[in-house]
């Protein structure tokens, strides 16, 4: 196993760094690196810059617009994006439905949807979870009944991230109520502007509206918008979830937070001294840094195996558990490091264009918003308890 980077890899790293230094808009970087949700207009502007560079979908096959980067180059790029505070494209199009479409979709679907994902014409959201179906997703109840060349869809999705911005939703629907749970599900691509779709906002603990409920009331969806075979949607759904979990460790973002904490510790004062001299605080930071290093080497080990052609079973679950726990510990410590300046919740001020000044230093604006939002990291993408179940089954054979 070789964990060192070649000269070509190092040259590639410099190329990515230079691109980000010259092309990443400052307003995009500012929102993202403070841990705030990047507004849609800024996110789309950044995605168009990435598309112009040909870097919108590095993992896609070259024939559909991918970059042809090696596994190592993809890793390096992800690290550079994280270090420089550059958001990756919204995952719902590029990382989720895109690969499902080019792997299982019809030629017509590939020709129509893939270019629209690359040039950010479509904003996708994910319609999997329902009020009674989260971890036990196969119990979903939203129904699609065939009527000529259409399905008629009725039911409800919930926790649909950014549905209010989306013009497309990929949905799991039940097309056979008599089959075993996993065997009666189909995968539909639905235009959010179809009559009968209603979106209701859900405000999270971070006071923001990233989550939604989506209701389907006699919504007509052309049969040609079904991906793959009828009642085989579970296969495509699982394929998509596998992609989702493998990108969730977020080592580079966590490293950036560690560096930020070290900077803050040199400035913030506590009990008459600097935070950097507070042994208890520095011990907590050092412990997280050690755990993060272990996670990084685990990820690199997996990378080396992936480059050698190995397919994974429970490994992404391990990365998800450790990565999200570290994210939560770091943002908690960030808020702690700010003392009373960590308490105000300032994010909405930015979105509303308020011009009153924040009470604390610049770096205090953002961590609370991020800390609150990331409570969800151990829930979304399959809860950490479910990941532990996967590990116990796949690795321990329980
Ligand atoms: C911020 C955020 C964004 C999201 N975005 C989307 C989205 O865009 N689209 C979408 O479709 N969904 C989305 N989700 C939903 C997410 O996928 C679900 O919340 C998740 O799968 C858990 O389902 P649930 O909320 O129904 O909890 P439940 O499945 O009801 O679980 C409740 C608790 O019980 C535990 N539990 C359940 N089953 C088991 C078991 N077998 N063994 C051990 N413990 C168990 C869980 O770990 C959890 O702690 C999002 C969620 C969040 C928080």
From TrEMBL:
Its cofactor is FAD. Residues 231-395 form the Acyl-CoA dehydrogenase/oxidase C-terminal domain. It comes from the Bacteria. InterPro entries: Acyl-CoA_Oxase/DH_mid-dom, Acyl-CoA_Oxase/DH_mid-dom_sf, AcylCo_DH-like_C, AcylCo_DH/oxidase_C, AcylCoA_DH/ox_N, AcylCoA_DH/ox_N_sf, AcylCoA_DH/oxidase_NM_dom_sf, Mycobact_Acyl-CoA_DH. Keywords: FAD, Flavoprotein, Oxidoreductase. It comes from Sneathiella chinensis. The keyword Zinc-finger does not apply. Belongs to the acyl-CoA dehydrogenase family. This is Acyl-CoA dehydrogenase. It holds the Pfam family Acyl-CoA_dh_N. Residues 125-219 form the Acyl-CoA oxidase/dehydrogenase middle domain. Residues 6-120 form the Acyl-CoA dehydrogenase/oxidase N-terminal domain.
């Amino acid at each position: 196993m070789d964990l060192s980077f070649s000269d070509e890899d190092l040259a590639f790293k410099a190329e990515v760094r230079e691109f980000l230094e010259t092309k990443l808009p400052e307003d995009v970087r500012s929102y993202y690196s403070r841990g705030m949700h990047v507004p849609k207009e800024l996110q789309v502007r950044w995605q168009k810059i990435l598309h112009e560079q040909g870097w919108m979908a590095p993992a896609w096959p070259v024939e559909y617009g991918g970059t042809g980067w090696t596994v190592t180059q993809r890793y390096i790029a992800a690290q550079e994006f994280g270090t420089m505070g550059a958001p990756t494209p919204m995952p719902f199009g590029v990382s989720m439905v895109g690969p499902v479409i080019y792997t299982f979709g019809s030629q017509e679907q590939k020709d129509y949807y893939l270019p629209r994902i690359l040039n950010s014409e479509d904003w996708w959201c994910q319609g999997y979870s329902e009020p009674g179906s989260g971890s036990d997703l196969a119990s979903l109840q939203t129904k699609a009944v065939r009527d000529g060349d259409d399905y008629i869809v009725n039911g409800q999705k919930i926790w649909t991230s950014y549905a209010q911005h989306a013009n497309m939703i990929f949905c799991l629907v039940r097309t056979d109520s008599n089959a075993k749970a996993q065997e009666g599900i189909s995968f539909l691509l639905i235009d959010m502007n179809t009559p009968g779709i209603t979106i209701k906002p859900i405000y999270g603990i971070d006071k923001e509206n990233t989550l939604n409920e989506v209701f389907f009331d006699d919504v007509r969806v052309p049969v040609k918008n079904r991906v793959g075979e009828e009642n085989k949607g579970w296969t495509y759904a699982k394929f998509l979830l596998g992609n989702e979990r493998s990108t969730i460790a977020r080592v580079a973002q966590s490293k950036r937070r560690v560096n930020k904490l070290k900077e803050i510790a040199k400035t913030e004062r506590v009990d008459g001294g600097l935070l950097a001299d507070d042994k208890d605080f520095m011990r907590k930071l050092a412990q997280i840094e050690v755990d993060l290093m272990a996670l990084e080497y685990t990820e690199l080990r997996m990378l080396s195996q992936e480059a050698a052609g190995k397919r994974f079973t429970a490994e992404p679950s391990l990365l998800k558990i450790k990565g999200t726990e570290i994210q939560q510990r770091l943002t908690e410590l960030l808020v702690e490091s700010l003392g009373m300046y960590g308490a105000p919740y300032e994010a909405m001020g930015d979105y509303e264009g308020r011009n009153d000044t924040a009470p604390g230093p610049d770096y205090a604006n953002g961590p609370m918003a991020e800390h609150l939002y990331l409570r969800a990291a151990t829930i979304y993408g399959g809860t950490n308890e479910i990941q532990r179940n996967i590990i116990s089954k796949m690795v321990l054979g329980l």
